[in-house]
Write a structure and sequence with these properties.
Layout (H helix, E strand, L loop, with lengths): L3 E3 L5 E3 H7 L17 E2 L5 E3 L1 H11 L46 H15 L15
Antiparallel strand pairs: 1-2, 3-4
Length: 136
């Protein structure tokens, strides 16, 4: 069944006959093909048909995945012996400076500093667990 479309003016257009009539025309764009998909050379001559292009494509792109592609053989003389030359880096250890409290002056400041120092020495008591609230 031919594909017929109606234009905005109400005319019927048969797309299959339109494609068949213009398949040798050069397509618009930068791909260098005609309407059928053949590769074109200089002057619009056909260099490769669409069938040949597709055969070449499917030769290169097989649907089967190749896990280990063949590698060229190397002669025994050309192989290099691998040596482990890795050296573990030694971390630089810097001694930590002891933490000191800043010098404070005045009677109020010295009292606050002493009470903070005393609070650091006293172990803190654990807080009692919170009561669970049951909802209706």
């Amino acid at each position: 069944m031919p594909r017929t479309y109606r234009t905005a003016n109400g005319k019927q257009v048969n797309m299959d006959s339109l494609l068949a009539a213009n398949e040798k025309e050069i397509a618009i764009g930068n791909m260098g093909v005609n309407a059928r998909g053949d590769l074109l050379g200089p002057g619009g001559t056909i260099e490769k048909t669409k069938d040949k292009v597709m055969q070449d494509y499917y030769k290169l792109n097989t649907p089967v995945a190749v896990d280990n592609p063949p590698q060229p053989r190397q002669h025994a003389e050309n192989k290099k012996q691998l040596e482990d030359d890795w050296e573990d880096p030694t971390p630089e250890v810097t001694p930590e400076e002891p933490k000191t409290r800043p010098m404070v002056r005045g009677s109020l400041a010295s009292t606050v500093a002493q009470t903070k120092a005393d609070q650091d020495l006293v172990p803190k008591e654990p807080k009692p667990p919170k009561k669970k609230i049951e909802r209706f």
